[in-house]
Write a structure and sequence with these properties.
InterPro entries: CCR4/nocturin_mRNA_transcr (IPR050410), Deadenylase_nocturnin (IPR034965), Endo/exonu/phosph_ase_sf (IPR036691), Endo/exonuclease/phosphatase (IPR005135). The longest helix has 23 residues. This protein starts with a strand and ends with a strand. Helix 2 packs antiparallel against helix 4 and helix 6 packs parallel to helix 7. Helix 6 links the parallel strand 11 and strand 12. It has a single domain, classed as Endonuclease/exonuclease/phosphatase (Deoxyribonuclease I, Chain A, 4-Layer Sandwich), CATH 3.60.10.10. It is globular and about 55 Å long. It has a seven-stranded mixed β-sheet. It is an alpha+beta fold. Helix content is 23%, strand content 29%. The protein contains eight helices and 18 strands.
Length: 391
């Protein structure tokens, strides 16, 4: 089955915004947006200043974290989450790779369409949320950062994180619901960042996921990296599957499309015969799957011939159970507490060394997420991985 691929780094433009609103009403399919940065991007003045034509950001992550904490000094305390270190055998971790998966909540959706009835409007303002989001990222300092619902890529996340040494790729949704919100900042999409001091880029491709050959509104970014410490290669994907109940069949088809693409890519880069697991590149697949563990798409990933396992099962007593929740919110339709977010990894070639635990119900509070303490309705997932020794 053919996968539609779009160029790297597609951006939001006002022209595209206008086009999408015009064409979406006629039902005409839209191509992915053009692969260049919008000319009219205004860099966030709190973090970036234009100097001789290029964005200059605070280069020191400790200083930037302090800046975020100073801006948030009147907020309630942060969640106290512990990194749980695992003794999985196979020797001590040499130099673990820290991975963060997070649906950060698109600003236009948080303020416009998602209707978090218990969350005060001030807590949803971008002037607060941007500091909370950056504080979370800077607290854990991942080598690989996979984000969904990113609608402030060009004005905030790309320039700020580039100033801290991250390279990145962004793929917007073709028909982002953000574009229906007045005063939006362009379409939301998936973004993948990696620490350039730790990894060298080999390849990156943006995919528009299909279901039974029909292009959908969901996307993925797939990046192949070489670890500068070990010389080993790693293929990382970030995706965000279709939301809402009733769309289980579509999520399953989208997941199958992504798995097929990854299988082809791994075989191409490995250079060995198809199915030769000794030459397979380890995979990390991060995403908001919008699917609970009993759904078909979860089973497809857990039984895939790619040999994948879900890292957050390591938090459970038996090592077989996902967390009780990765998202907890209250909408007009009621309370939603469920596990929708995952970090999948190649169990034969990668080892999970540590997993960040979940905040308690008491910490999250009666009004749930988002809140003055936490900027998204989804909790970040953070894991430390290391390469298993080759036989």
């Amino acid at each position: 089955m053919e996968t539609m691929v779009c160029p790297m780094g597609g951006g939001a433009t006002r022209l595209y915004s206008t086009l999408s609103q015009t064409l979406s009403s006629t039902g005409s399919p839209l191509p992915l947006p053009p692969a260049h940065q919008p000319a009219n991007t205004n860099l966030d003045p709190d973090f970036c200043q234009e100097q001789t034509g290029s964005p200059v950001c605070p280069p020191d992550p400790v200083e930037l974290l302090r800046q975020c904490q100073e801006a948030l000094r009147d907020r309630p305390p942060r969640f106290h989450r512990k990194l749980i270190h695992l003794s999985d055998g196979d020797g001590a971790p040499s130099s673990p790779i820290r991975v963060m998966q997070w649906n950060i909540l698109a600003q236009a959706l948080g303020e416009g369409l998602d209707s978090f009835v218990q969350c005060p409007l001030e807590a949803l303002s971008w002037s607060r949320r941007k500091y909370l989001i950056l504080e979370e990222i800077l607290t854990y300092r991942p080598h690989i950062l996979c984000l969904q619902e990113v609608d402030h890529y060009y004005d905030t996340f790309q320039p700020v994180l580039a100033g801290l040494g991250y390279s990145s790729h962004f793929c917007p949704k073709p028909w982002s619901p953000c574009l229906d919100v007045e005063g939006n900042n362009g379409p939301d999409g998936c973004a993948l960042f990696f620490d350039q001091s730790r990894f060298e880029l080999l390849d990156s491709v943006n995919i528009r996921l299909s279901a039974m050959r029909i292009p959908t509104n969901q996307v993925a970014v797939v990046t192949t990296l070489r670890c500068r410490t070990t010389g080993r290669c790693l293929c990382v994907a970030v995706t965000h599957l279709k939301a809402r109940s009733g769309w289980e069949w579509l999520r399953s088809a989208q997941g199958s499309d992504l798995l097929r693409h990854l299988q082809n890519l791994v075989q191409k880069h490995a250079g060995g015969p198809a199915g030769d697991t000794n030459t397979d590149i380890p995979l990390l697949i991060c995403g908001d799957f919008n699917a609970v563990p009993t759904e078909e798409v979860y089973r497809r990933f857990s039984t895939s011939p790619l040999g994948l396992d879900s890292a957050y099962k390591k938090l459970s007593q038996d090592g077989l159970t996902e967390p009780e929740y990765t998202t907890w919110k209250i909408r007009p339709t009621g309370e939603c507490c469920s596990t929708l977010d995952y970090i999948w990894y190649s169990r034969d070639t990668l080892r999970v060394d540590a997993v960040l635990d979940m905040p308690t119900e008491e910490e999250i509070g009666p009004n749930r997420l988002p809140s003055f303490s936490y900027p998204s309705d989804h909790l970040s997932l953070v894991c430390d991985f290391s390469f298993k020794e080759k036989d």
